[in-house]
């Protein structure tokens, strides 16, 4: 057991391992990552794996685009194949308001270097032939987006962090954080006490309880989301994009020879349950019947449930608290944490080192909720 550390990172998902890697590779000594279970055993392993820069919020566009660059060089930089497929994201739009919203988003994305564009329904169907164009007005598409394997990203970052001297402790549960005069002095775990003056909370859906250990309210709620996997689908286009019906939130992309698909469930209530159920299937079938009827003929061969980490404005919490030195946090990504992991690792590294990050993330501070400065993200799945 490690008895002291310069920095303790809590959480062994994509956010925690990315932060540990970026800190260690920048020369920060004695970085310790603690994970109460196995690496990637929380939300990351249950993510759909989508990676994109098509957002409505300027910060999310920049974080997504920066992360796409990192995913593209991941194999060369970290020596891990993450199964990256740059096949694009295709948002299907069925109302004038949706079209206007995405036209504005595409204009902002283009200004920031993202090659997204608006398509007509026929162009959308050419890219994703399983869809129906009935009632479809337009679509938004960026060829730079895509999907990859979340577990591979986590293990790549963890291995890279270890190579640079970081320590990764699995099955190490945080029981408390000790402070003295508003300064962190130690992290208490089930394996012992780690003396440190810096903690980074990257605990995802479990972040609120970590923040409470230092008297900080991180307003994160867990919400179950489910995914289904289908039997092999003959004749799938090799470059089938991640396809999303924005009205229903139905989405699908290739998963091996079949499809991975899912959608939000408005009947789901906050909680930590990750067991699967079929209560969402009728609504899923209704969405498929309307937008992709060919999917109805496919047999489900598997699936799983995981947790979104939801904040009140469905946007991330990134920053360092002023009330307790030094407590940094990166959480509450509301469904787009995996795809922003690489860029957020850079940002947290720079915050720790006192550098200016590549993007100003101060609007994502948890303090925004006390001054009524919400920052909503519209392009949610």
Automatic annotation (TrEMBL):
Domain FAD dependent oxidoreductase residues, every copy: 6-351
A Pfam cross-reference name: DAO
Example GO molecular function: oxidoreductase activity
Record's keyword terms, sorted: Oxidoreductase
Thylakoid keyword on record: no
Domain of life, source organism: Bacteria
Cellular-component GO terms for this entry: cytoplasm
PANTHER family per record: FAD-DEPENDENT OXIDOREDUCTASE DOMAIN-CONTAINING PROTEIN 1 (PTHR13847:SF287), SARCOSINE DEHYDROGENASE-RELATED (PTHR13847)
Name recorded for this polypeptide: FAD-dependent oxidoreductase
Organism expressing this protein natively: Streptomyces capitiformicae
């Amino acid at each position: 057991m490690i008895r002291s550390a310069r920095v303790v990172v809590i959480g062994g998902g994509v956010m925690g391992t990315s932060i540990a890697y970026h800190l260690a590779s920048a020369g920060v000594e004695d970085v310790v990552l603690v994970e109460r279970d196995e690496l990637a055993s929380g939300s990351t392993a249950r993510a759909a794996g989508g990676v994109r820069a098509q957002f409505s919020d300027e910060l999310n566009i920049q974080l997504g685009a920066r992360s796409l660059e990192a995913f593209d060089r991941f194999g060369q930089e970290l020596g891990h194949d993450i199964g990256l497929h740059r096949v694009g994201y295709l948002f299907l739009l069925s109302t004038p308001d949706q079209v206007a919203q995405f036209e504005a988003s595409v204009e902002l994305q283009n200004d920031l270097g993202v090659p997204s564009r608006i398509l007509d329904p026929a162009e959308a169907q050419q890219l994703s032939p399983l869809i129906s164009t009935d009632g479809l007005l337009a679509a938004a598409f960026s060829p730079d987006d895509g999907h990859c394997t979340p577990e591979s990203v986590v293990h790549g970052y963890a291995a890279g962090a270890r190579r640079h001297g970081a320590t990764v402790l699995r099955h190490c549960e945080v029981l408390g954080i000790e402070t003295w005069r508003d300064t962190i002095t130690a992290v208490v775990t089930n394996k012992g006490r780690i003396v440190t003056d810096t903690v980074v909370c990257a605990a995802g859906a479990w972040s609120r309880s970590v923040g409470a250990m230092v008297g900080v309210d991180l307003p994160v709620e867990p919400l179950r989301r489910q995914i289904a996997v289908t039997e092999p689908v003959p004749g799938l286009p090799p470059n089938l994009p991640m396809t999303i019906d924005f009205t229903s939130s139905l989405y699908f992309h290739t998963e091996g020879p079949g499809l991975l698909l899912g959608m939000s469930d408005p009947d789901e209530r906050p909680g930590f349950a990750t067991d699967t159920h079929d209560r969402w299937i009728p609504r899923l079938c209704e969405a498929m019947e309307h937008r992709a009827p060919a999917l109805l003929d496919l047999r489900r061969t598997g699936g799983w449930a995981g947790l979104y980490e939801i904040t009140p404005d469905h946007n991330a919490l990134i920053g360092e608290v002023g009330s307790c030195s030094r407590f940094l946090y990166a959480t509450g990504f509301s469904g787009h944490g995996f795809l922003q992991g690489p860029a957020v690792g850079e940002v947290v590294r720079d915050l720790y080192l006192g550098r200016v990050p590549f993007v100003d993330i101060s609007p994502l501070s948890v303090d925004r909720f006390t001054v009524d400065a919400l920052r909503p993200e519209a392009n949610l799945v």
